[in-house]
Amino acid sequence: MLEYGLKRQLLFIGAIVAIIAIVIGAGYFFMGPQATCMDGILNQDEEKIDCGGSCAACTVIRYDDIEVIAYHSFSFEGMYDAMAQVRNPNPRHGTRSFSYTFHFFNAGQQEIGTRAGRTYILAGQTRYIVENNISLNEAPAFVTLSVDAPGIWEEQKYLTGQVVIPVFSKKYEKMPALDPGFAKVSGVLENHTSYTFASVDVQVVLVDATKRPIAVGKTQIDGVRFGEQRAFVVLFQKEIALPADIYAEAVTNVLDEANIR
Question: Nearest Cα to 133, choosing from 218, 190, 220?
Fold first, then answer.
């Protein structure tokens, strides 16, 4: 008999708890906070937090194309070099990889060869692209550069704007007769950032008195520590006139986390 009474009490208590839970749940549903377009939560039919669906449309970020400022080619005993200067007009976003192609044409405007490659460009950056030792079956009359739209634009988290790796002590010298190459450009780069980079790319452009490029070269420096000065040398195989000036830039890919230490 006692056991039967205990069961009835437990059932009664359980029913009371269930009723209370239902009342509380209904009260929260009808009187609690409702989903809005300003609650900081992805709910309702929103596409992103507090936008899309029944809320205001989400902001679409549109990126400007990489601009090609200039391009040139240079010959040496049947081989050719090419350079271009490109600019990223997007002030906060860059890309760690995009494709480019140099196109070479003869006087009849027929394409006689190409050289394709991939590189990076940072937010708001203007930089050189250099390709050396290109083989063509005939001399080109002119060259152009095409740039493919990057697959991914990324917001730059480190060192927005031009990364500060200045180049100084630039010097042009003809090579001794027994040494390989015709001439070299030496210089020193200095990492003014607080980061160590796995690699830094150096491009050198030699120009004449009218500022027209007459030769280009490049090299890569590995393991550049923060605050460190590093010497570099770029060799030029072909005979060139004495340049009026030397343009040299050092760039590094801060969009690639593996390059930052």
Answer: 218
* Domains present along the chain, CATH in parentheses: 64-162 (2.60.40.10), 163-261 (2.60.40.10)
Predicted local distance difference test score (pLDDT) of residue 229 = 97
Token code pair at residue 73: 């080619």
Tokens of 156: 């730059």
In terms of Cα–Cα distance, which of 189, 187, 175, 177 is closest to 228? 189
Q: How confident is the model at residue 142 (pLDDT cuts 50, 70, 90)?
A: very high
What pLDDT, on a 0 to 100 scale, did the predictor assign at position 11?
Answer: 67
State the Cα–Cα distance between residues 190 and 115, nearest whole angstrom: 31
What HEC string does the chain produce?
CHHHHHHHHHHHHHHHHHHHHHHHHHHHHHHCCCCCCCCCCCCCCCCECCECCCCCCCCCCCCCCCEEEEEEEEEECCEEEEEEEEECCCCCEEEEEEEEEEEEECCCCCEEEEEEEEEEECCCCEEEEEEEEEECCCCCCEEEEEECCCCCCEECCCCCCCCCCCEEEEEEEECCCCCCCCEEEEEEEECCCCCCEEEEEEEEEEECCCCCEEEEEEEEEEEECCCCEEEEEEEECCCCCCCCEEEEEEECCCCCHHHEC
Retrieve residue 53's tokens.
């669906």
**33-42: average pLDDT:** 81
Reference 211, options 247, 237, 250; nearest CA is 247
